[in-house]
Each structure stands twice: as C-alpha cells, then as structure tokens.
Fold this sequence. Notes:
Layout: H1 2-10, H2 19-35, H3 38-55, H4 60-82, E1 83-86, E2 90-93, H5 98-121, H6 124-133, H7 138-167, H8 174-201, H9 221-240
Antiparallel strand pairs: 1-2
Amino acid sequence: MIREFDRFAYDNRLRTWRAEWKLAMALILLVLGMISSWREQLLIMAGMTYWIIGRAGVPLSLYGKAMAAASVFLGVSLLTMVISISLPFHLSISYSQLRPAAELAVRSLAAWSCLFFLLITTPAPEWFAVLRRCRLPAAVIELCFLMYRFIFLLEQAAAELWLALRARNGGTHWRHGGMLMYQLWLKAGQSYEALGRALTARGGIDSFVYRHQPLDTKPHSIDMAAGAALIGLLLGMVWWKG
C-alpha cells in the first residue's frame, strides 16, 4: 500500500497544484479540526474526501484502506479509555468514557484525512524542497529523507521474507509470524547499514540534492472557491460557538 501511495502522489489530478497551496490548505484545516467540535470535524473529513477522491482521482478502495488502517490503530488505542482490567481478572466498561472516546476518534480521523491529503497528492521530494524554502534546519530535512527511504527498505524486506515463507508452505502457525518479525528485524538492520555505507561512500547526506520543478498550472478557480468556502464555513461555525 505504501508504493500505491507513492505512485498516486506522482499521478493524480491535483499534481498541478503547487505544494505550498496544498500545505497551506491542509494545515489550516488541521488546526481548525483540532479546535472545533465533532460536527466541524465531520465536515473537514467530507471536504478532504471530495478533494482526494473527487478531485485528485484517488480510488475509493485505496482511500478506504488508508482510513481503515488508521481506524484499527485508533480503535486499539481507544480501548484503554473504555475498558479497564482489575484483579482478579475482570473486565469492565466505563460508559462515561464512550463519548470522549468517540469525539477523540472523530478528531483523529479528521486530522489523518488532512495528512493523507498531503501524502497522496504530492511527491516527497517536493515536500523536502518546501521544507528547505521554509528555512528548516538541514538536519531535520535529512532525517525526514532517511525515514522516507527506510520505509521502502522495510516494506521490501517484509515482502521478500513473506514470499520466502509462503514458498516453504509456511505462514499458518503463530510461530511463523514471530519468526518473520525476527528475520525482518535482522534484514532491516542490514539494509540500514547498507544505506549508511552508501551515504558514506557518497560523502554523506549533504550530497543529496532535492529538486523542485515548479509547475505553471495553478489551482482551478472552482477548487480555490471550494477551499475558501469550506475554510470560511468552518471559521464561522467556530466563531459562532464562541
């Protein structure tokens, strides 16, 4: 799924937007989502769905997988708010925490939709170029680059190990999962060391150049009007509630 994200970042209908426009809109909606109520957060999710699926042309199945993955991790973490365990082993549900947990879930999904909009519509090298123009420290940019590169190394290692395990008719017992995780840890460490040696051979991470090719096409007027209308509506709702 990571490679699908990266492919659509280069091949989507919002590719002609400048990265600064998308970053500004996503950050404004992210901040509004953090300070608003669940109604405004649902509106933000609807707006991001419109731009991701309707305007960028990202398949609904891919967007659904991303939201489902975020929901799984979010659901596991929210269980600690709702379920309590006491000794001797006894499970109890705190019904008073159901509403705060639901509100936190909506806020988190709204924030994730804003971040996913940035992830799926703009290639990573353009973000590195934007960070450089924002005068961020070089160490921060290089760290982001290394994390981005290591994600693909980790995914490739996991895919190769899983294919090798299935080729041996494995993968049906829980021990196979533990073995896969252990081998993945070792292989990821080896890949990271190989990347470090490659960087050292090239003179360090300072040798990398982040290219940003400016795009002449600006956002369509209908997109700008829709974004301004959504932000204005959210600001009005937040101001009306005090």
